TrEMBL record:
Keyword Magnesium (UniProt): no
Entry-linked Pfam families: DctM
Protein name (database record): TRAP-type uncharacterized transport system, fused permease component
Species name: hydrothermal vent metagenome
TM annotation in the entry: 51-70, 76-97, 104-124, 144-162, 169-193, 213-238, 259-280, 336-360, 380-399, 405-429
Length: 452
């Protein structure tokens, strides 16, 4: 997200004046900061890209079906979930930088992703054999075959490598330090930090098969609640709900001192209700709000900082929160609906603190005045319908005590139906600005890709 906001803001210290029509016509520079599909066009005129898109859409549909109509065994569902996302991450995030588009590098990534997926499925299928062999030699460590070791080691390496590709070195370094501690480092540390080392067989088993391991509780949360909420957020964005966010923010905050920055804060807060991802928040709002803040006189670095801080806070905004909320619900046995309800006040306080900084900056440097924001009432109404009704359905279901994944699935269905109804109504409305998005096959595909 840092690269994204810097790219959008890095056009001078104060930025040039940008009129409202110019802002509307700006390219999606947020997404241009990293096009994960660019390298896939290196093969056969984009054939590989099409195949990966088909896989990603099918993968999203599989997640919805397994959370509504049929249930996979926990280990298998988590293994398939890991295998699919590992494959997508390996082919869409280059190992050596954003601009590596060589067809040979792409071929390596495809083979690498397929090997990771195969290893994950092997580990799921090998569980029974490991138990049988271990029970046959009571008192011995967990009995892994050479293939088990190869598959397990590849999965651990892939988890480190793909984490590095997607989010940088911090998480992989922490994992390496943790593994080193239980393997050998703990026996060399003094005092309370000293710990007996564990045998490699035990570490591999705990990493793969324990509830705290790669395919344990956290993987179950990811394969159900988190992914379904990501897909629901994708449907909201594709349906035009993000237009409602921008337009309502213009009405509420657009005409006060520092209005452009207040629009950024409010739009990020509202986008946080439909997406628990800071990156998705920045991509959907920052491309409009950062140029808008600069055109209103705010410094480029301050504009980027406001967007980054506000988008990060989107993870705190109910009802669709970051992954931490689902982890908290799982480990504490507190219903997700309860966590959502008690998170409202802290989330509001967070965004108020960002708004106070905006106000101080606007008054201190006498910027943020004389901003004329034209509101598109057609987008406001059409986007508002697809924003409010599905969220209301989801919140009602959550308060009724159903699982978050079940609530998200029904909210997706409600959104699709609402989009069809509003499209039918639009045929009888003479207002040309009222153009609701109908969720047909193309839009549903787009929504699944955004979510996945």
């Amino acid at each position: 997200m840092r690269d994204m906001v810097v790219l959008m803001a890095d056009n001078g210290e104060t930025g040039s004046r940008v009129s409202q029509p110019d802002i509307a016509d700006m390219p999606d520079t947020a997404n241009a900061s990293h096009d994960p599909w660019l390298s896939l066009d290196a093969w056969n005129g984009g054939l590989l890209r099409k195949l990966v898109v088909i896989f990603a859409v099918s993968f999203g549909i599989w997640h919805i079906l397994t959370n509504i109509y049929f249930v996979e065994p926990g280990l298998w569902q988590n293994a398939i979930h890991f295998a699919g996302f590992a494959f997508l991450a390996s082919v869409t995030f280059s190992p050596f930088g954003k601009n590596a588009v060589s067809k040979y590098a792409v071929a390596f990534d495809v083979v690498y992703g397929l090997l990771i997926a195969a290893a994950a499925l092997w580990v799921a299928g090998a569980e029974t054999g490991i138990y049988d062999r271990t029970l046959a030699v009571t008192g011995q460590p967990w009995q892994f075959t050479i293939v088990d070791w190869a598959a397990g080691s590849l999965l651990i390496f892939a988890a480190l490598d793909l984490s590095r590709r997607v989010s940088g070195w911090v998480i992989p370094i922490l994992i390496i330090l943790s593994l080193s501690y239980v393997l050998f480092l703990g026996s060399y540390l003094p005092g309370v930090f000293r710990a007996a080392s564990l045998p490699p067989n035990d570490i591999l088993f705990r990493t793969l098969y324990n509830d705290e391991g790669m395919f344990g509780i956290l993987a179950s949360i990811s394969s159900t609640n988190i992914t379904l909420f990501m897909i629901f957020g994708g449907f909201l964005v594709a349906s035009g709900a993000s237009d409602f966010v921008i337009e309502i923010s213009k009405i509420v905050a657009g005409r006060i001192r520092g209005g452009a920055a207040f629009v950024a804060v409010m739009s990020s807060a509202l986008t946080g209700t439909i997406s628990g991802s800071a990156i998705a928040n920045t991509a959907s709002t920052g491309v409009i709000t950062i140029p808008l803040m600069k055109s209103n006189g705010f410094r480029a670095k301050f504009a980027a900082g406001v967007e980054a801080a506000a988008s990060t806070g989107g993870q705190l905004m109910p009802p669709i929160m970051g992954a931490g909320a689902f982890v908290m619900a799982s480990y504490t046995s507190i219903p997700y609906a309860t966590i959502v309800s008690v998170s409202v006040v802290p989330a509001i306080l967070y965004f108020l603190s960002v708004a106070f900084i905006v106000r101080i900056e606007a008054v201190k440097f006498q910027v943020g005045e004389n901003l004329d924001l034209k509101v598109n009432y057609g987008k406001l109404v059409s986007g508002g319908v697809t924003f409010i009704i599905p969220l209301t359905v989801m919140i009602w279901l959550l308060m009724s005590g159903v699982t978050p994944s079940y609530a998200a699935s029904w909210a997706i269905g409600a959104l699709i139906v609402v989009s069809w109804v509003t499209s039918i109504v639009a045929r009888f409305v003479k207002n040309t600005s009222f153009e609701p998005v109908s969720m047909g096959p193309t839009k549903i595909t787009e929504a699944l890709l955004i979510g996945i």
